[in-house]
Amino acid sequence: MSQRVDVKVPDIGDFDGIPVIEILVAVGDTVAKDQGLVTLESDKATMEVPSSAAGVVKELKVKLGDSVSEGSVIAVLEAESSASLEGARRADEGKQQASVADLRETGPSPAAAQRPLPAGEVKAATGRKADIECRMLVLGAGPGGYTAAFRSADLGLDTVLVERYAALGGVCLNVGCIPSKALLHAANVIDEAAHAKDYGIDFGTPKIALDTLRGYKEKVVGQLTKGLAGMSKQRKVRVVQGSGRFVSPNELEVQGDAGIQLIRFEHCIIAAGSQPVKLPAFPWDDARVMDSTDALELKDIPKSLLVVGGGIIGLEMATVYRALGSAVTVVEFMDQIMPGTDTDLIKPLADRLKKQGVAIHLKTRVTEAKATKAGIVCGFDGASIPANDTYDRVLVAVGRTPNGNRIDADKAGVAVTERGFINVDRQMRTNVPHIFAIGDIIGQPMLAHKATHEGKLAAEVAAGEKKEWVARVIPSVAYTDPEIAWVGITETEAKAKGLKVGVGKFPWAASGRAIGIGRTEGFTKLIFDEASHRIVGGGIVGVHAGDLIAEVTLAIEMGCEVADIGHTIHPHPTLSESVGMAAEVFDGTITDLYIPKKK
Description:
Layout: E1 3-8, E2 18-23, E3 30-31, E4 36-41, E5 46-50, E6 55-60, E7 67-68, E8 73-79, H1 82-98, E9 132-139, H2 143-154, E10 159-163, H3 170-175, H4 177-195, H5 210-234, E11 238-241, E12 243-248, E13 251-256, E14 259-270, E15 274-276, E16 289-290, H6 292-297, E17 304-308, H7 312-324, E18 327-332, H8 343-355, E19 359-362, E20 364-372, E21 375-382, E22 390-391, E23 393-396, E24 400-402, E25 435-437, H9 448-462, E26 476-478, E27 483-488, H10 491-497, E28 501-507, H11 512-516, E29 523-529, E30 535-542, H12 545-557, H13 562-566, H14 577-587
Parallel strand pairs: 9-10, 9-14, 10-11, 14-25, 16-23, 17-18, 17-23, 18-19
Antiparallel strand pairs: 1-8, 2-4, 2-7, 3-6, 4-5, 6-8, 12-13, 13-14, 15-24, 20-21, 21-22, 26-27, 27-30, 28-29, 29-30
């Protein structure tokens, strides 16, 4: 039987007339008891009004900007029986997750959910004796996977971690984020040494010992992977090396050097990641054609390098090889490098690359590539055809594809889209309740720092904690030179959606710190909602932009208004004070620039 329930503002202390600043649900949503419905904000605190019952939202009694007090009716629910409500809640979560475009990919409707297995009751679907049994199995030991495994162990779950690489860390630590940043540091030192001539210090022409540089990169990687191995032992996480494939909802086969092992589990977190897209037009059997993993091996410094794809990975590798001495050409199919990023953020990077001799060709694609003795001969089509058609090496960096279709997830009943993504709800559960998925395999953005938070959440939910995905924004960083970082709503997105936003932009040409280090090409911009003056986005281009964007991310998460940021005292002279000054530009209180008031 169902009944109508009025959800009212509870006793919130000595407050009256508190404005509603955020509506967290919509009519038709299924909500759990104690789930937040709206957010209120006084001059002292921000608080959510929880639902007093579980049910379906039939009517919302407030809208943004309304003022409420104790006893005010927020919403009307239709409370359901616990059994029917659970089914409705799961269906609603699936609908909500499919609509979050930047985190999930819409796929086929999930199969009927299976009832989670009680502790100690694991089905032996294959009828075989298991080599290993555990409460938690984590498939993949990248940043998301090892975080999930370590958190599971900390919460008392007997945990097994399966990883195809010999060392923990996955793609990120072994052949991705970490080695690329080590090489980018080397490239930065080369550029800084050249820049020193401008203020009277000449280090001379750099001599590159490639074996030593490669060894430095491997030392950085080794230091981190050894640390992970040590922490796994401290937590008593059992590590199994090999490639894993599901054989049933509670069993996984791992093919490794020791043969095939069968692991039986109660809970599983899939963190199998992604791999580089390999376009069929290229002769991949020739070692001179590289993906990002190959490029990081640094086998040699080619005289000429073609980078296919002007995204973050392609431009980071272009930065490295250009600094080491390669003549670099970049071709990008879209009309700008780093498609989707605000064009004003891109311009300082594009200008610097041009000055450094990197040739960038937009609206252009490679139509064919042939391996010859002289090099890789390429054919092009588009608006800007490169003068050269033969290259010593070619790097194809056109994105990554998830590994969902490589792990036989269907044998566990897990629904996988044609492209290899796995849909999850706000608790990281797949359509099979005791199996979770995190990281690249569940959709964009494919970022390590997103995966780590998802991994921790999945482990905590599996251990019985009542939590959901609540991150408002996820920052992105391109570690090029200059770096580009952004978070939240971009100007491009705001314009496309018809949002009324205002921008505060502070040029680094007016920053004492930027002038002192000779890097004034950058700027910091903040994007605010015009009505509430709350920060909703931001972008930074310049050295250390990736470090600076964290303050903007926190400001969005905390719901800061322009005055909160502008009135926060930033140290001087630093690049970080450009964040506060960007807020002052929007607020009209800036004194470090002269901006005439609009009439």
